[in-house]
Amino acid sequence: MRDEMLSSILSELNGTSADIEASAIISIDGLMIAAMLPQGMDEDRVGAMSAAMLSLGDRTSDELGSGELEQVLIKGDTGFVLMIHAGKDAVVTVLAKPKAKLGLIFLDVKRAAENIEQIL
Amino acid sequence: MSNFKIVFSGPVGAGKTTAIASISDFAPVSTNENASDMTRERKPQTTVALDYGVMKLDGREKIHLYGTPGQERFNFMWDILTSGGLGLVLLLDNTRKDPLKDMTFFIDSFRDYISQTALAVGITQTDIASVPRLDIYNKKLREMKISAAVFEVDARKQADVSLLVQSLLFTIDPGLEY
Question: CA B118, CA A111: separation in Å to the nearest integer?
Answer without folding.
Answer: 50
